[in-house]
Amino acid sequence: MDSNNSNNLDKLFWEVIEEELMDNTDEELLLSMLEKERQSGSSSRRKRRSLIDQNREEGNIRLFNNYFSENPVYTDPQFRRRFRVHRHLFLRIVETLGNHDEYFQMRVDATGKMGLSPLQKCTSAISMLAYGSSTDIVDEYVRIGESTTIECLERFVRGVNEVFRAEYLKRPNNNDVEHLLQMGESHGFPGMLGSINCMHWEWKNYHIAWKGQFCRGDHGKPTIMLEAVASQDLWI
Q: Angle, to 10 degrees, between the axis of helix 146-168 and the axis of helix 118-131?
C-alpha cells in the first residue's frame, strides 16, 4: 500500500471516529484526545532505524598502515600467522578479484562517500575463513557491518573459485604427478604427491537420523570432515 492510500485511510478513520463519538463525549476533551493520538501515531510512523557511522575510512587507513604500507607496523611472519597466508599472496588475491569483479573495487556510495576498500572486504572474508569467526567480529577493527561481511564472504568465495579453479583446484595431470613426485623425493618423501590437511566444519542443518555418525566424543555438535591435498609450491 502506498503512502497516499495510507494517509487517506487514516483521514477517513479519524473522521468516522469523530462522527461516532462526538454526540456522547465532551467536544474539547475528545478533540484533545484525538490530537494526542494523531501526534503519537504520526511520530511512530516517522521512526527510522538508527544508523551507525562506522567511519570506514578510518578503518581502511588503520588496516593499510598496520599491514600493507611500505613500513607496516606488523612483520611478514606476523601477517602470515594472523591471516594464514603470505602477504604477497593476499595482495595477489585482492588484485585479481578487483580485476574480476567490480564489487572488489573502491566505489562511491549513494551519499557520495568512498565505500569499503578491497583490502577491508578481503580481510573480513579471510578472517572468517581462517578462524571460523562470527560475522561481526572484525567490525570494530575493519569497520564493516554484519550483512556486508556476509556479502563479502559470498562474493570472495565465488570469485576465488571462478578465477583460481583452473590453476589450483584441479586434478593433477601426468606432468603434474611427475613434478609432485620429484618434489616429494627431493625432500626425503619418495612417492608422495602432496600434504593432506583436514578440519572439522560444524554441520548446522544435519539430518537428525545421521547425528550420531557425525559427532566426536569431544565435540557435542555434528561436524563434517573437510580434507584437502596440497603441494608445497601452493604455499609459496
A: 80
Bridge partners, residue 131, by sequence: none
Beta bridge partners of 197: 228
Distances, alpha carbon 103 to alpha carbons 57, 106, 146, in Å: 17, 8, 17
**Long-range pairs of 126-129 with CB within 8 A, sequence gap ≥ 24:** 126/83, 126/84, 126/85, 126/90, 126/156, 127/83, 128/153, 129/153, 129/157
Per the listing, cell 516517522 goes with 46
What is the spatial distance between Cα 58 and Cα 140, in angstroms, rounded to a whole number?
Answer: 11
Q: What percentage of the chain exceeds 70 in pLDDT? A: 74
pLDDT in tens, 158-187: 999 999 988 877 777 888 888 888 888 888
Residues recorded for the chain: 236
Q: Which three cell numbers stand for residue 135?
A: 560475522
Nearest alpha-carbon partner for 62 in 77, 52, 74 = 74
Q: Give the H or E element holding residue 228.
A: strand 223-230
**Helix 118-131 and helix 56-67: axis angle, to 10°?**
70
Q: Give the distance, in angstroms, between the CA of residue 126 and the centroid of all CA atoms in the same chain.
A: 9
Please indicate, yes or no, whether the overall pTM of this predicted structure exceeds 0.85: no
Please list, in sequence order, all residues whose beta carbon lies within 8 angstroms of the beta carbon of residue 186, skipping any fewer than 6 positions away: none
